[in-house]
Amino acid sequence: MNQLTPSAQKIQNLLNSLGYKYTVIEHAESTRTAQEAADRAGCELGQIVKSLIFRGKTSGKPILVLTSGANRVDEKRISGYAGESISRADADFVRTVTGFAIGGVPPIGHHEKMETYLDEDFLPYQTIWAAAGTPNAIFELQTEDLQKMTAGKIVQVK
Questions:
Q1: pLDDT digits over 58-102, tens only?
Q2: Is 67 helix (H, G, I), strand (E, B) or coil?
């Protein structure tokens, strides 16, 4: 088995400690974009979990939106759920609240607990793929487990 980089290993250890038997796979090629991840995983674009971090304009709190790789997030809709205007977080804020760089942000294992919304468009899929801490690392998981792991609210995001 290949040695994982520290960030990917952190996610593998977390999955193990939570009792999940999922395996982080680190690729030689990038999985930074949803399309690249889908190509590496051999799955549909819709099965890729994009972890997007937004910031509440009033509260300054981080908000995590786990959206299908095929979708664009409607920020007005998410603002409605969050009860305040939101903006896309910058790279420094993302690294501060998650501990990961944009392009490799996993759905779990963040420095801060955050309000989380899950794209309802994942529901038709049996399995989905999420980032695992680096722009080259992903793992496959049962769709229902994403909600259990993140305690996210299942909503329409697009």
A1: 999 999 999 999 999 999 999 999 999 999 999 999 999 999 999
A2: strand
Residue with tokens 């304009």: 57
Cβ neighbours, 10 Å, residue 71: 18
Helix (H) or strand (E) holding 56: strand 48-56
Q: With residue 80 as reference, give the H or E element that holds it.
A: helix 75-82
For residue 60, how many other CB atoms are within 10 A of its CB?
9
Q: For residue 155, which phi and psi values (nearest 5 degrees)? A: -140, 170
pTM, two decimal places? 0.96
pLDDT digits 0-9 by tens, 112-134: 999 999 999 999 999 999 999 99
Nearest to 154, CA basis, from 84, 105, 146:
146
**Contacts (Cβ under 8 Å, ≥6 apart) of 21:** none
Radius of gyration in angstroms for the set of CA atoms belonging to the chain, rounded to a whole number: 14
